[in-house]
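Researcher: We plan to redesign the surface later, but first we want a full-length starting point. Tokens attached.
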């Protein structure tokens, strides 16, 4: 039974890779342009975080250096959603506005 499983494992792996197609140059360029646009939108929306002064050295600032594992996840999700939306809109010919 294990010999059959060992023989079928490479076939299953190859079958999984056969469904994926390589990304074309146009798709890569589109994704790069959309990523740059999403980063620009992030910089515009979060200017206070980028240009603000850090108060981590202030007295009684709490636990210095303590970061939450989920910190920034919402921003990352929003940025990935912006990129996906941009790529989809470019692929369908719709115009995307920031």
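Model: Full-length starting sequence:
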């Amino acid at each position: 039974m294990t010999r059959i499983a060992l023989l079928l494992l490479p076939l299953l792996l190859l079958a999984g890779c056969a469904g994926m197609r390589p990304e074309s140059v146009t798709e890569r360029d589109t994704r790069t342009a959309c990523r740059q646009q999403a980063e620009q939108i992030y910089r515009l929306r979060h200017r206070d975080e980028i240009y603000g002064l850090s108060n981590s050295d202030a007295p009684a600032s709490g636990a210095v250096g303590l970061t939450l594992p989920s910190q920034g996840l919402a921003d990352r999700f929003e940025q990935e959603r912006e990129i996906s939306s941009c790529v989809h809109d470019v692929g369908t010919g719709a115009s995307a506005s920031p």
